[in-house]
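// run 5 | inverse folding | seed 20
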C-alpha cells in the first residue's frame, strides 16, 4: 500500500539528499537533473557519472551537454548571474563509466561516495537497436551489475531506480504485465538463457575475430551480427531490448534486499509541459518518420495505422520516476512500473499520420533546391511486410536495376541519379527494418502498478501551479492530436531536423 503524497511531500523528499545519476548526458537524464534542481534547490548534491578521461573533461561535458542545453533556460532565468555558482555547488561531475567494475572510480572516491549517496538513478544505457553485442552487453548488462554492486556498498542508500524499457516484452501480443524477468527466462519456449555463457561467447568471438581479421570494420560487423543472432534466438527483436532484459534479470538476481524500482517507459517523446514544451534530443522511433517526411526522403512507411503506438512525453516519465522514489524509499522490495499510454489513452498511428500531414500542409518545409515551400504528397503506408517489399521491388529495385545497366552501357552517364535513388532505397529499407517491431507491435502494456502510484499523488492544481510543481504522469490528460500538432512535431522540426 502506498501512502498519500502531495507535491510538497515529493519535493520535500529530495531536500538534503545526495543522488548519483548515470546517463545524465542523455535526453531523460537532462530532464531529470533539471527538474530536481528546479523544484528542490536544497537537494544536497547531484553526482553525475560521466564518461571522460578525467574530472576536468567530465566537468566540460556537463557544462556543454547538460547544463548548457536549452532545457536549463528556465533555471538560468531563475538564478540569473548566480546560475554558474548554483550549478557548481549542487552538481558534482565524476569521471567514470558503468561498464567498469567500481564504475571506473578510484578507491578513495568510491569510499567517500558510498558514505554519502542516498539515491542511485541508473539511466545509462546504449539505446542503439543494432549495437555491437559486446558494447550493448557491457553497458546494459554489466552496467546493471556494477551499479548493483556499488549500491550494496552505500550505507545509507534509500533507493536504486533503474531505467529500462517496456519493450523488453519483445514482440508479444495482448496485455503485457508489470512483472520481473527471472534469470534464465526467455521469450522463446524451451530456450534457456545463461548470461555468463553469453559473456563467454562474446569474449571468444572477439578473440577469434582479432586472430582472423585485422580490420576494425570486420570486427564491428561480426559483433553486430552476433548480437542480433543471439537476440532473435531467445525471442527478442534486437540487441537493445535483449540486453536491457538481461540487465533487469541481473539486477533482480543480485539486489538482495536493496530497495529497487524498475521504470519501463515506452517510446519517449518530447516534453509536454515543463520546462520547455516540444524540447527533445535524439531521434526516437516515430521521429524518423516525421523527419524523413519533412526532408522529402521518405514517401512510404511500413506501419499499420490501426495499431496503437505507445508513446509517453519525457517530462511525464521523469515525474513518475520522482514520485516512485518518494513513494518507495527504504522499502526492501522490487517494484516495476510501466510508464506507458496504450492501456489508458491509446493513440493509433493514424493520429500521428493525420497530425503530421496537416502540420506540414500548414507549415510546408522549404525545398533544398530552390528554397521554395515544398509540396508534400501524402505518405503511403503498408500494414504488412509482404506488401511493403512488393511495392519497394516495383517502385525502387526494378528501376534501380534498369538504371544500373543503362549506367554501365553509357559509361556512367547516370551515376549521380543511380546513387541518389540507391541511397533513398537503402534509407527506406533501413528505417523499415529498424522500426518494424514497433510499427507492427500488437502488445498493450498493463500499468496497474503505475495507476496505483498515480492514485497516491494528491493534486492541488491551483497551489501546485503557483509553486511551479507538476508531478502528473497520467496519459489520459493528453489530447494526442493536439500534442502532436502543436508540441511534438514543431519540436522535431526545431530541435532535430537541422541537427
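// decoded
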Amino acid at each position: 500500500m502506498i501512502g498519500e503524497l502531495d507535491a510538497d511531500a515529493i519535493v520535500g523528499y529530495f531536500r538534503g539528499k545526495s543522488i548519483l545519476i548515470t546517463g545524465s548526458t542523455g535526453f531523460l537524464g537532462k530532464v531529470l537533473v533539471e527538474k530536481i534542481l528546479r523544484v528542490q534547490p536544497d537537494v544536497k548534491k547531484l553526482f553525475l557519472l560521466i564518461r571522460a578521461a578525467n574530472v576536468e573533461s567530465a566537468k566540460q561535458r556537463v557544462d556543454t551537454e547538460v547544463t548548457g542545453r536549452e532545457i536549463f533556460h528556465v533555471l538560468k532565468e531563475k538564478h540569473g548571474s548566480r546560475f554558474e555558482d548554483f550549478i557548481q555547488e549542487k552538481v558534482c561531475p565524476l569521471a567514470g563509466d558503468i561498464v567498469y567494475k567500481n564504475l571506473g572510480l578510484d578507491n578513495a572516491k568510491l569510499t567517500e561516495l558510498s558514505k554519502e549517496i542516498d539515491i542511485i538513478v541508473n539511466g545509462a544505457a546504449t539505446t542503439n537497436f543494432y549495437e555491437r553485442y559486446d558494447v550493448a552487453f557491457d553497458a546494459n548488462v554489466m552496467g546493471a551489475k556494477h551499479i548493483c554492486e556499488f549500491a550494496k556498498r552505500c550505507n545509507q542508500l534509500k533507493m536504486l531506480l533503474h531505467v529500462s524499457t517496456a519493450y523488453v516484452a519483445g514482440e508479444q501480443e495482448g496485455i503485457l504485465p508489470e512483472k520481473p524477468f527471472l534469470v534464465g527466462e526467455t521469450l522463446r519456449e524451451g530456450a534457456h538463457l545463461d548470461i555468463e555463457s553469453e559473456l563467454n561467447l562474446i569474449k571468444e568471438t572477439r578473440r577469434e575475430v582479432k586472430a582472423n581479421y585485422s580490420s576494425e570494420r570486420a570486427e564491428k560487423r561480426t559483433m553486430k551480427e552476433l548480437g542480433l543472432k543471439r537476440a532473435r534466438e531467445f525471442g527478442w527483436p534486437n540487441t537493445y531490448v535483449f540486453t536491457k532484459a538481461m540487465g533487469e534479470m541481473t539486477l533482480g538476481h543480485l539486489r538482495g534486499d536493496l530497495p529497487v524500482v524498475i521504470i519501463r517507459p515506452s517510446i519517449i517523446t518530447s516534453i509536454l509541459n515543463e520546462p520547455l514544451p516540444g524540447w527533445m534530443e535524439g531521434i526516437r522511433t516515430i521521429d524518423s518518420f516525421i523527419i524523413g517526411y519533412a526532408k522529402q526522403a521518405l514517401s512510404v512507411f511500413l506501419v499499420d495505422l490501426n495499431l496503437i503506438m505507445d508513446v509517453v512525453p519525457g517530462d511525464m516519465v521523469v515525474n513518475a520516476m520522482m514520485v516512485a522514489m518518494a513513494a518507495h524509499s527504504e522499502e526492501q522490495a522490487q517494484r516495476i512500473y510501466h510508464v506507458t499510454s496504450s492501456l489508458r489513452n491509446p493513440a493509433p498511428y493514424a493520429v500521428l499520420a493525420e497530425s503530421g500531414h496537416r502540420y506540414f500542409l500548414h507549415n510546408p518545409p522549404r525545398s533544398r533546391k530552390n528554397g521554395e515551400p515544398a509540396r508534400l504528397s501524402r505518405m503511403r503506408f503498408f500494414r504488412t511486410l509482404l506488401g511493403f517489399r512488393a511495392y519497394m521491388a516495383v517502385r525502387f529495385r526494378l528501376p534501380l536495376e534498369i538504371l544500373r545497366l543503362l549506367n554501365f552501357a553509357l559509361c556512367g552517364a547516370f551515376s549521380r541519379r543511380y546513387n541518389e535513388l540507391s541511397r533513398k532505397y537503402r534509407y527506406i529499407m533501413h528505417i523499415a527494418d529498424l522500426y518494424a517491431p514497433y510499427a507492427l507491435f500488437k502488445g498493450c502494456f498493463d500499468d496497474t502498478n503505475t495507476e496505483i502510484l498515480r492514485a497516491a499523488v494528491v493534486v492541488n492544481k491551483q497551489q501546485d501551479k503557483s509553486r511551479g510543481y507538476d508531478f502528473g504522469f497520467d496519459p489520459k490528460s493528453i489530447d494526442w492530436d493536439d500534442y502532436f500538432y502543436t508540441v511534438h512535431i514543431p519540436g522535431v522540426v526545431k530541435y532535430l531536423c537541422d541537427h
